[in-house]
Amino acid sequence: MAGRDVILEPAKVLIRRRITALFNDAAKGERPILRRADALFATDSVAWRVNGDIVTMMIGGVSGLLLQMLHPAVLAGVWDHSDFRSDMHGRLRRTAKFIAVTTYDHAEYGIAAIDRVRGIHDRIGGFLPDGTPYQAGDPTLLAWVHVTEAISFLNAWIRYAEPGMSATDQDNYFAGMALVAERLGADPVPRDRASAEALIQSMRSTLRADARTREVAQLVLNQSVGAALTDAASAVIMQAGVDLLPDWAGTMHGLKTPPAHVVRAGAHALARTLGWAYAGSPNHEVWPAEVTVWPRD
């Protein structure tokens, strides 16, 4: 068995390098985030457990984006102030980096990242197509973005990694992630699952789907990230993200996927493959402050 592991190690490293390239722009000097003992979240926190799984976070990220854009003001902010048409991959990569920094990097770096995003939100505003003004820094709008993201990450984790997750741990996830949401300026911020679900239900009457919603959704779902094999894995992620949506949200978007058992089998297979590839990776270790560069592939 040990000999087989040695033979397969180059394949595992190759997979990890491709994932690293997807989430880090080497030309800009970006690097993977090393896990630190002095992060905003404790190393034994539920946030560390949930936010560190690549497949479930990508699936949850897609589902969360599709939920978020059903709010007209969120959609308008993306439409008016984002380069999503030319760089959707970059936008998604920046979101993933924000989650990684605020969960795993030194606490001061996490706080700086939150404050930087809040500053950007405070400068963004405009008008909806019907003339209604919006502000990206509106606390209620930020609460919508937060709760849809958090519940999507958690639901993906439960479906594909920990189906028996306790209700207590689910509540603890929301309680922990509230730290980031509150510093971003969101209000109200749910601290347990029941409050999160109630907040989503309370905002359903404000949600809409139109031609702009469909255009942005298709740009998210049909983006190419490079090699054919990588795009095939991306297609599995996208289908699983749509499948994760609440039924009412999927109906609003008018999105269809292959049968659920087919989608979920593909996502489970991808999760197992990346779980195998990342076994023994530095991605799963906690590093002291003096280690500042990625120690190995």
Please outline what is shown here.
This protein has 13 helices and 4 strands. With 297 residues, it is mainly alpha-helical.
- Please give the share of residues in helix: 55-70%
Low-pLDDT runs of 5+ residues are none
* Helix and strand sequence: HEHHHHHEEHHHHHHHE
The span between the termini is 21 Å
Mean pLDDT: 90
- Global Rg: 19 Å
Q: SS-based structural class?
A: mainly alpha
Tell me what you see in this structure:
- With 297 residues, the chain is mainly alpha-helical.
- It has helices at residues 2-23, 46-51, 54-68, 72-81, 84-104, 107-123, 139-160, 167-184, 193-203, 211-221, 228-244, 247-253, 260-278, and strands spanning 35-36, 125-127, 133-135, 286-287.
- The strands form two sheets. A two-stranded parallel sheet has the order 1-4. It has a two-stranded antiparallel sheet with strand order 2-3.
- A hairpin with a 5-residue loop joins strand 2 and strand 3.
- Helix 1 (2-23) crosses helix 13 and helix 7 (139-160) runs antiparallel to helix 8.
- It starts with a helix and ends in a 10-residue tail after the last strand.
- 35% of the residues are buried.
List keywords for this structure.
297 residues; two-stranded parallel sheet; two-stranded antiparallel sheet; 13 helices; globular
Helix and strand topology:
Elements: H1 2-23, E1 35-36, H2 46-51, H3 54-68, H4 72-81, H5 84-104, H6 107-123, E2 125-127, E3 133-135, H7 139-160, H8 167-184, H9 193-203, H10 211-221, H11 228-244, H12 247-253, H13 260-278, E4 286-287
Parallel strand pairs: 1-4
Antiparallel strand pairs: 2-3
Helix pairs in contact: 1-13, 3-7, 3-11, 5-6, 7-8, 7-9, 11-13
